[in-house]
């Protein structure tokens, strides 16, 4: 009764156009009065990796969380732990023959004290709404190929990630003096975190089913 879900994933030649599909739906109990339904979707490779001449486009992975108290959170390819492989990516050859690329993703949600731990814990009030947001971008030079059994690429990019919280605090009513009930003025809580850096990556994999090999070299500053 506290956790249940379903995951469907397809891979290999027999999956044909559905290869790469990854769909998950899950329910999780958070407290006695609140639960969350989560949906995550990664499209099949045939639909996710698009090529238009010298331009390659990768569609992002999508996730949605809906809480039973009305809170929600939407995630469109946000690069958690600097993983831009789930983000929207565009690659193109620009004059004079430079392989340029850029990636990006974001998340946004309306939560509360009952559904997030990103606000201070207190017994004297609650936070509602708690607006959470994040955006991650990278831009630089690089190119990748994806031809079924062969996946390879390289990139040197500058990345930036910004995450934040804006929450409204509502103190519980209390008694300052006998027979004199009052409510403390509403206040706000802010939290902001940013990261800026450089990523160099070289990777490749070859998978024949029975035999496979891969290499992945990543340098982060």
Structure description:
With 221 residues, the chain is an all-beta fold. Helices cover 2% and strands 66% of the residues. Strands 1, 2, 3, 4, 5, 6, 7, 8, 9, 10, 11, 14 and 15 form a 13-stranded antiparallel sheet that branches. It has a two-stranded antiparallel sheet with strand order 12-13. A hairpin with a 4-residue loop joins strand 6 (62-67) and strand 7 (72-76). Mean pLDDT is 89; it is low at 175-184.
Number of beta strands:
15
Shape: globular
The number of distinct helices, counting runs of at least 4 residues, comes to: 1
Supply Rg. 23 Å
Low-confidence stretches: 175-184
Instruction: Kindly estimate the percentage of residues that lie in beta strands according to DSSP.
Output: over 45%
Largest sheet: 13 strands, antiparallel
Distance from N terminus to C terminus (CA atoms, Å) equals: 44 Å
Percent helix, as a range, is: under 10%
Average pLDDT score:
89
Give me the strand/helix succession: EEEHEEEEEEEEEEEE
Query: What structural class do you assign from the helix and strand content?
Result: mainly beta
């Amino acid at each position: 009764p506290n956790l249940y879900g379903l995951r469907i994933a397809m891979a290999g030649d027999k999956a044909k156009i559905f290869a790469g599909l990854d769909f998950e739906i899950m329910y999780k109990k958070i407290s006695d009065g609140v639960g969350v339904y989560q949906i995550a979707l990664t499209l099949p490779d045939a639909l996710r990796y698009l090529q238009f001449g010298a331009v390659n486009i990768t569609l992002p992975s999508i996730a949605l969380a809906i809480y039973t108290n009305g809170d929600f959170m939407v995630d469109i390819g946000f690069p958690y732990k600097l993983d831009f492989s789930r983000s929207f990516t565009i690659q193109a050859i620009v004059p004079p023959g430079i392989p340029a690329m850029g990636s990006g993703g974001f998340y946004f949600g309306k939560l509360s004290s009952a559904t997030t731990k990103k606000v201070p814990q207190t017994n004297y009030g609650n936070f509602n709404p708690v607006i959470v947001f994040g955006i991650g971008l990278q831009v630089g030079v690089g190119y990748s190929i994806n031809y079924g059994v062969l996946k390879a690429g390289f990139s040197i990019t500058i990345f930036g990630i910004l995450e934040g919280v804006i929450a409204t605090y509502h103190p519980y009513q209390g008694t300052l003096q006998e027979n004199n009930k009052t409510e403390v003025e509403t206040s706000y809580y802010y939290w902001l975190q940013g990261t800026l850096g450089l990523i160099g990556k070289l990777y490749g994999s070859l998978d024949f089913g029975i035999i496979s090999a891969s290499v992945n070299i990543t340098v982060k500053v």
